[in-house]
Design brief:
Strands 2-3-1-4 form a 4-stranded mixed sheet, with no helix packed on it. It contains 1 helix and 4 strands; from the N terminus they run H-E-E-E-E. The protein is mainly beta. The termini are far apart.
């Protein structure tokens, strides 16, 4: 009769039976589906190559939110993904969509649309 072993010991025994296949070079095409990288792949440059918004919301100057909430700022424009960034005038907000570029990130923040009473998309 065999001795009972823990889940951890059983996993170690199973992994000891598995072998790592040798690394090989392959073209980047559909034949890679289901395969695993032998080493980490590192991007040579940032994608996208500019600062961008990670969410739908309103781009504002952090200094404009220094007083107690709620805040009311006029919307000075829209920046959809793929459009050119626009400057945010002091005391205003700019409607910004996920992936849209941000020209100047110093002192700026994105207020998520979920934290407002105004829809981000029109």
């Amino acid at each position: 009769m065999s001795t009972l072993r823990s889940i951890s010991a059983h996993l170690d025994a199973v992994l000891a039976l598995a072998s790592t296949p040798p690394a090989e070079s392959a073209p980047v095409d559909a034949s890679l589906i289901g395969r695993v990288l032998a080493a980490d792949a590192t991007a040579r440059f940032p994608v996208p190559p500019h600062a961008n918004s990670a969410m739908d919301g309103f781009l504002v100057h952090a200094a404009d939110l220094s007083s107690t909430a709620p805040w009311t700022l006029p919307v000075a424009g829209d920046v959809p993904a793929g459009a050119a960034p626009i400057a945010v005038p002091a005391g205003h907000a700019v409607r910004i969509m996920t992936g849209a570029p941000v020209a100047d990130t110093a002192g700026m923040l994105v207020v998520p649309v979920e934290n407002t009473t105004t829809p981000a998309c029109r």
